[in-house]
Amino acid sequence: MYDVVIIGGGPGGYAAALYAHNFGLNVALVEKERVGGTCLLRGCIPAKAWLKTAEVFAHAKKAADFGVQVGEPSLDWQVALDRKNGIVDGLVKGLGGLLKARKVDVISGYGRLAGGGVEVSTDSGEVRRLEARNVILATGSRPRAIPGYDFDGNRVVSSREALDWTERPNRVAIIGAGAIGSEFALILGSTGAEVHLFEMLDQVVPGSEPEAGKALAREMKKKGVNIRTGVAVGPAEVHEDRVVVPFEGDYVEVDKVLVAVGRAPVTEDIGLETTNVSVDRGFVEVDPNTMLTAEPNIYAVGDIVAGTPQLAHAGFAEGIAAITHIATGEIAPVDYRAIPLVVYTDPEVASVGLTEAEAREAGYDVEVHDHGMRGVGRAIIQGEVGGLVKIVSEKDGPILGATVVAPAAGELIHELMYAVAWEALPAEAAAYIHAHPTISEAIGETLLSAAGRSLH
Ligand code: NAI
Fold first, then answer.
1. Probe ligand 1: pick from 261, 304, 311, max atoms within 8 Å of CB?
2. Do the beta carbons of residue 208 and residue 182 sit within 8 Å?
3. pLDDT tens readout for residues 135-157
4. Which of 343, 360, 181, 155 is nearest to 262 (CA)?
5. What is the value of pTM for the model shown?
6. Is residue 8 part of a domain?
């Protein structure tokens, strides 16, 4: 009898499995592939490996501006692909080692809820039954399709296949300019492909601050990405050697189409029908204090959870919350107010807390302060002045949210994560000194403005 059986070895599931050692719980982790889930095998990690290649290529192209002559760079796609695969393999191996060291039983096969426990169908066709005091569902998500764009693994693909392209396509249409669409637009645009990015809503990375969308779009255009926002595409015409993507009386002809319009939960064949677990359009409903479903011993974490962000780090936090409840009965809810969201484009777009529009919608009397990178010494030195900092606070009250557009904004955002989480007043946060010269100084300047006493 296991204390916990976890179905799904992605960030939500493996974090739960790893964290359980703190309480001496006896854990099985059921996974049908390698451990790591979407994030490690075909999401965050491999995408960032490709983005690093794109960044190095872009730097090499700009090297002459810095007095460094390297000639015209060329890309060895296979080397970059091998590097990406090596990084993924190394991390999968490391994770396997860690699970083993923590004495987690990793059980290979497909898991389903059955009779209060879990049944695992193995590759060899056996069915193995695991008795469990508690089950954590962590089965993740898969790319969503749209009508007229059936995935065929070749011409019309999701990020899963695009990460494993063995050569760079010359012409690509990307449908959806959310996190995945924008990151791929950068990977492909920076390395010389003709990229057409289509977004139904009125900006790239919709949902983030409009200023951030504008700043990113400007930088993307410089890298040759053709951006069309507020545009609906018609059904694709897929030919043997190309795809035609029609839109508003016009069309583009490309080699590949990447569809990145969101991800759907994977919950249809895991035995939920044998339980009282409540499901809304495929997403599992939980008590956010505990991650418990309507069943007293079945928890859910990660991308399948209804109403929470589909982010690896949200999954980690949810796995920890579920294990804490299982082991101690204590309630340790995830603080969703202050989860950073990072789009790893060039420049990166990172945010935490509420946007200006969200804060107004929530009824706050809002104050907004921003600061561009053009006057920031370090940004000028690095040749990266296209970014900005925007801080949203309540009038005479705490910081509610912030956005940073900058190289490494994904790192910089964490100081503002604390400000939001700790409900810091702008004047309190502005009292601390940022090192000079750094890009972080733009945050310090914005905080000073928000505190009513700007410097530069
Ligand atoms: P998303 O929800 O971030 O973006 C999808 C975009 O597609 C939206 O902007 C939407 O308006 C647009 N769209 C939908 N239907 C469309 C249509 N027919 N034509 C044109 N545009 C259309 O989803 P995405 O990028 O697929 O990512 C999936 C999930 O993975 C998200 O929850 C995302 O947050 C997460 N993710 C996070 C990353 C990060 O944190 N850096 C990186 C990659 C994914």
1. 261
2. no
3. 999 999 999 999 999 999 999 99
4. 181
5. 0.96
6. yes
